[in-house]
Amino acid sequence: MKKLNLFAVALATTALTFTTACSDDSDDSTDASNPPGGGGNSPTVNSYSGSATYGDLVTFSINKTEGSYTLNNETTGQTESGNYTVSTDTYFKGVYQVSAGGNTFFGIELDDKIVTANFPSGNSSNDLSFGVSSEIDNSGRLNEIAGDYFYVKLGSYLANGNPMEWGVFTAGTDSIWGVTEASGNNGPEDITINRPLDYSVSDFDLSYTVNNDRLTISDGSGSNLTGYVYAAGNTSVFLIDQGTGMGTYIAYKIDDNFNPANSTGNYKFIDFATDGTKGAGNYNIDANGNVKYSWTDGTAANTVTDISLNSALTQSNIPNVWYAYNVNSDGDNLYLVVAGDAIMHYVFDRNFNFIEYGAGAKL
């Protein structure tokens, strides 16, 4: 396997989607003008914290009662806010739609668990933003966090034709180690990653400590990164922000007992492409692992496209990663990762140049 020296500072992953509820994930938001027990109806406000693809730290506040949101970019100091509508379309039911600056953007929320969106985030270089519930305290969940994860790295460097980094890492109760690959050279179907990973020959070694909903991650050089994790069985997702301009890593826990028959249904996702296109879509997965794909950018002129991915296959070394070649007339190649109620995909053209990434949840 070709080893890439791209972990000079850290590894990473992201909080994407979950249905397993945790005892301290409840919505305890209050309105000072209408306190609980005051005789009125308090608005339901969900709060999230996480990372955006350029390497910015972001927080979300979503007012479910008013249909509004606020996104604060902690890195740039910019705040974005507005209203959203909830799609009732057959393919995209439950997806948030936002109009801003004459453009259409999308978001997906699993209440008090995770949020992912491609609407404005205080930095035009961000393609997607991710967040997990700000009410989570992971200090008591180290054993739930531990395990093997499949990850991809996102960032603005991908638009320059650079290969997308992917790999596998093991999260222990206080450290992370793993192996890296570049999808431009090898895809998950081309190699075998032997697990459990051998700590002595890993490409990187990071330590981490839990600070309530955030992780402090260090490579031992004195540089600390910020991470987030949602620990929920096989749908556990790990996120580490690499710092301004350095991108972020998103990882899903590997499920050795993965069975397509247990992953049927509709998974909504938000995506972006290296040509600047942003949209929302749906994967409908049947019990045989076949996938029907639908997508929209929200414009009246757009036609929803359905593609049947009958060649989707599971991998023996990473069972919940599928791939399919030549999924459309352009000869694009799709990689699809399903982890419980979380989903993500990435797409390469016929020459294996990275062109698209998406992430979302089963709604």
Task: Characterize this entry briefly.
With 363 residues, this protein is mainly beta.
Structure, described:
With 363 residues, this protein is mainly β. 1% of the residues lie in helices and 44% in strands. It contains one helix and 26 strands. The chain has a nine-stranded antiparallel β-sheet with strand order 4-3-2-1-9-8-7-6-5, with no helix packed on it. The protein starts with 44 loop residues before the first strand and ends with a strand. The N terminus is likely disordered.
Give the % helix: under 10%
From the N-terminal CA to the C-terminal CA, the straight-line distance is 37 Å
Mean pLDDT metric? 83
Which structural class should the secondary elements be placed in? mainly beta
| Largest sheet: spatial strand order | 4-3-2-1-9-8-7-6-5
Using only C-alpha atoms, the radius of gyration works out to 19 Å
The largest sheet, given as strand count, sense and whether it forms a barrel, is: 9 strands, antiparallel
Estimate what percentage of residues fall within beta strands. Answer: 35-45%
Oligomer classification: single chain
Secondary-structure map:
Elements: E1 45-52, E2 57-63, E3 68-73, E4 79-83, E5 85-86, E6 96-100, E7 103-110, E8 114-117, E9 129-133, H1 142-145, E10 147-154, E11 165-171, E12 175-182, E13 204-211, E14 214-218, E15 224-230, E16 237-241, E17 248-253, E18 265-273, E19 278-285, E20 291-296, E21 307-308, E22 313-314, E23 321-324, E24 333-339, E25 342-348, E26 354-362
Antiparallel strand pairs: 1-2, 1-9, 2-3, 3-4, 5-6, 6-7, 7-8, 8-9, 10-11, 10-17, 11-12, 12-13, 13-14, 14-15, 15-16, 16-17, 18-19, 18-26, 19-20, 20-21, 22-23, 23-24, 24-25, 25-26
